[in-house]
């Protein structure tokens, strides 16, 4: 599926934390279109993960409107399958009881076509340098290798929209490049890619960089 995107209009999210509420998002406007890589940069606690959590439907906004566009117009994020909306969560979310290859194949297994997706899973794993780890369980691999498996899993079904929270956080320069190659290739094939990142390498590869500060989004002011 190509041509889908995601639009946020004035999203506000406040967490009730003890006696003092925390405004994580103070009115965020954002549009990410199919074919582009948009990077969100900002200090720790500025609201990047909260924005991704709203965009994927894990959290609900207090106010504002979230919409998916193109072929996904009118759909709520919680109704979208992995070929429509794929995630790389900050905590990765690999299944501990499955070897890496089965983790990568999980989106296909859940829709009943794991066998057909096998070759692509193998190619993606080889592309990000974990082809030799197919039979290892997550706890038998490094955090960086687990992160690469999470990115391969997200790319498996050519998602229309991909949201990735610091997808290169645990990588050395070379592996970060390979991950970014895979994410940029997905965008060039039509995926709308939104990355939250602190990684200059990722910022260099993005088509647009937006800065989050105190729950607000704006253009990046300094390189
Ligand atoms: N479930 C929650 N309950 C209360 N406060 C929260 C919750 N989740 C996030 N926050 C607060 O909301 C603000 C934004 O957090 P968020 O995780 O979105 O930041 P971030 O930019 O992704 O940070 P980092 O770069 O460290 O991942 C922070 O002040 C954080 O403490």
Automatic annotation (TrEMBL):
PANTHER family: ABC TRANSPORTER RELATED (PTHR24220:SF685), IMPORT ATP-BINDING PROTEIN (PTHR24220). One of its GO terms (cellular component) is plasma membrane. PROSITE patterns: ABC_TRANSPORTER_2. Pfam families: ABC_tran. GO terms for molecular function: ATP binding; ATP hydrolysis activity; transmembrane transporter activity. InterPro entries: AAA+_ATPase, ABC_transporter-like_ATP-bd, ABC_transpr_LolD-like, P-loop_NTPase. The keyword Calcium does not apply. This is Putative ABC transport system ATP-binding protein. Transmembrane segments: none annotated. Residues 6-223 form the ABC transporter domain. Keywords: ATP-binding, Nucleotide-binding.
């Amino acid at each position: 599926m190509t041509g889908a995107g995601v639009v946020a209009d004035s999203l506000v999210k406040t967490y009730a934390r003890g006696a003092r509420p925390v405004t994580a998002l103070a009115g965020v406007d954002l549009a990410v279109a199919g074919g582009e890589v948009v990077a969100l940069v900002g200090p720790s606690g500025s609201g990047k993960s909260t924005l991704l959590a709203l965009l994927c439907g894990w959290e609900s906004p207090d106010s504002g409107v979230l919409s998916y566009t193109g072929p996904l117009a009118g759909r709520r994020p919680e109704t979208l399958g992995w070929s429509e909306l794929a995630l790389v969560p900050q905590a990765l979310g690999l299944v501990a009881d499955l070897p890496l290859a089965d983790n990568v194949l999980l989106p296909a297994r859940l829709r009943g076509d794991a066998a057909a997706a096998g070759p692509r899973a193998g190619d993606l794993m080889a592309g990000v340098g974990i082809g030799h780890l197919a039979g290892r369980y997550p706890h038998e691999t490094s955090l960086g290798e687990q992160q690469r498996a999470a990115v391969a899993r997200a790319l498996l079904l050519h998602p229309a929209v991909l949201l990735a929270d610091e997808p290169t956080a645990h990588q050395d320069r070379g592996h970060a490049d390979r991950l970014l190659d895979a994410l940029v290739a997905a965008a060039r094939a039509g995926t709308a890619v939104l990355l939250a990142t602190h990684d200059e390498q990722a910022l260099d590869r993005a088509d647009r960089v937006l800065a989050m500060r105190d729950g607000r989004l704006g253009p990046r002011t300094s390189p």
